[in-house]
Structures are given as structure tokens and as C-alpha cells.
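Q: Hi! Curious about what Glycoside hydrolase family 1 protein looks like structurally. Here's the sequence.
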Amino acid sequence: MTTFPEGFLWGAATAPHQVEGNNLNSDFWANEARVPGMERSGDACDSYHRYAEDMDLLADAGFTAYRFGLEWARIEPEEGLLSRAELAHYRRMIDAALDRGLTPVVTLQHFTHPRWFAEAGGWLAPDAVARFTRYVEAVCPILDGVEWVVTMNEPNMLSMMAALQRDMLAQQASGQWQSPTVDNARPAQLPAPDVEIGERLVAAHHAARAVLRARTDAKVGWSVANRAFEARPGAEAKLAELSWVWEDLYLAGSAGDDYVGVQSYSSQWVGPDGVEPHPEHPDNTLVGTAYRPDALAMAIRHTHAVTGLPVLVTENGIATAEDDRRIAYTSDALRGVAAAVADGIDVRGYLHWSLLDNYEWGHWRPTFGLVAVDRATFARTPKPSLAWLGSVARRNGL
Ligand code: FCB
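A: Let's find out. The predicted structure is below.
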């Protein structure tokens, strides 16, 4: 049996906008209404009301951690107007996790913003960092007992989405818009992350970290999407250039953090001209990416090499309708994690994406969940992968 370090966290992850439902004051909700071709999040999985049931599923299956997020758009629906009721709601979620023996891994910002923040210029507005810092100050009082805080989810994808948004009006006119994750099917068409915004996000992360360090006992980090780039012969310089823009700027931004979150799904070839379009293939996932369970170990090794920090796998999973493929993919990915640990890399845990089949940023078809959700009744139906990964968690080994 392959075993994992003592105290290794075994969990699953969700994000507020993707599971809660009716995130009315967020910029993403507004985009959904505006952009043709985007499916609506609507009630999502109604986890806003059903989080206790979600956590029961995890705890009963044997997991020890749950990564979920606080929704800034609910907590601060108008600039400066803080909702005590929403803060109390998220404190109840933290308590619900702790009561079940689930270590909460709490994300403060996961792709969505309050609508007012976006309308006031988003991350490029002069006050953007101060606005985010005020929000972080507001949530500190509810973080008592929380050991792991992720300030921002995938700032690199957020910068890419900002670049995409900039192009969106043009795309909208021609009906070409697809969600960024689904667009991974044609990665060559994804704009590179906007470096100016990326640098803003690094500044915001550092400001948030200072606040969290002063007011909480949490370990502070952020989670970076890793594309596990591989260079074709002769494309090494291109790979180095793309690595900086896509990942290393953000990994460098984690210097001084307590840990770094690794998020990995697939890998990506880089040729002399850049990221190669990913071809159609019968093994491709439901978001069009290559079936590459080995990408996670590549991501961990790259992240460790750049940062030297302890690593927490904050997302890894596969969009598939076939649950046995999810189990096969995850087994292979975990073998890669174990090999990285055996080589001396400090990996603290594995949080699968996702607990639930949820709203995949504009689409409902890509199913990443360990648990299926009936969108009319909200009934949860665990898939075999939930019990399987729970048993891995109980044994702390494969
Ligand atoms: C990541 C996001 C997460 C989910 C997965 C599939 O980029 O952080 O919300 O969409 O991809």
C-alpha cells in the first residue's frame, strides 16, 4: 500500500458561486444574464441552504477536510455595506465543518466579485486593493479556528478571465463566448493572463496576508492553476516565457506565504509559437482537455521548485460522465502525489474538485462531482467515487 504522511488532509472542494445558488449581487451573475450562450447558475446546487447535508456526505464517507468559499458579493453587496447575517451564515458553515471533524479550508475569493466592485473598474481601479483588504478585514472575526485560508483562487485564471472579458464584447457580438474552463478545449485561443492585473492581484494577496496574519492564526496562501506545460523540442525559451506569464508570476507572489495551493487538471504542449491547440481525442474530458492524471505530479514538482513552500493540493479532478474514469484518474494522480512525497516534497493534503456536480462557469454539462445533484429537487446522489476516495482517506493510503 502507498501511504501518505500523518495528518495528510483528505477533502473535496467547492466554490460559492458554483454551488450556493442565486448569487444575485455578483459580477458573474450579471455576466450570465448578458452573455449569449451562457447557461445560468440559477439555484445552482442550493448549497447555501444545504451545506450541512453536503458536509455530512463528506464526513460520513471518511474525509477529513472541506474546502469552501466565502462570497464577497453576499458579505458586501454594496460598497461599505457589510452584512452581519451573511457573516453569521459563513461562521455557521465553519462551525458545521469543525463539528463534523472536517478541517475547513476557506477561500476568500473564488473568481466572483461584488457587482459594484466590477462596475467601479474591477482590479484596475485605483482603490481595488484597498477594497479587497477591507473585505478581508471584515471576515477575519469569523475565521477563529480556521487553520487554512486561501486568499484568492487561481489569480492567474482570474487575470486571464479579465483579458477574456476585455475581448468579450467583441466575442459577444459574434456569439463566440464560452466559459474559460470549457475553452480549454482550444487553449490556443485563450488570451494570456493580463500581467498588469496579475501584479495587482499579487499586491492584493500580500495586503490580505498582512491582515490575516495580524488578526487570525490561519496559514495563509493562495491557489495557482497549473497547466503542466511541456516543451516540444526547440520550444524551451517559449515555455519559460509562458510559464512566467501563466504561473510563475503568481508563484513568485507566494513567497513568504505559509503554503501554496496547487490546482491541476491536465497538461499542455508548448511549441515554438506558443501553446498548441489541443486536438480532439476520444479520451478527452468533458471540458476538452487531455486525460493526463500525471499532470498533478508535474504541477506539484514545478510549484515546489519555484516556491520551496509546503504544498496543499487545493483542486484536482476530471470532468467525466463515467465515474470509473474518475476513480482511475484520481488513483493515478494520487500515485504521482505519493511519488512527489517520497522525493521529499512537503505535500499537506489532497482536496478533490469537486464534491458536487456543479455550475461550471457558464455550463452544466461538465460533471466533476463525487456526488450527483438533481437540479430540480436538489437531491444528492453519491457516486461510487465518493466512497472510494473516502476509503483512501480512512486508510491514508492507496
Ligand atoms: C478551476 C476552478 C474551479 C473549477 C475547476 C474545474 O479552474 O478553480 O472553480 O471550475 O477549474
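A: A fun detail: Confidence is low (pLDDT under 50) at residues 183-188.
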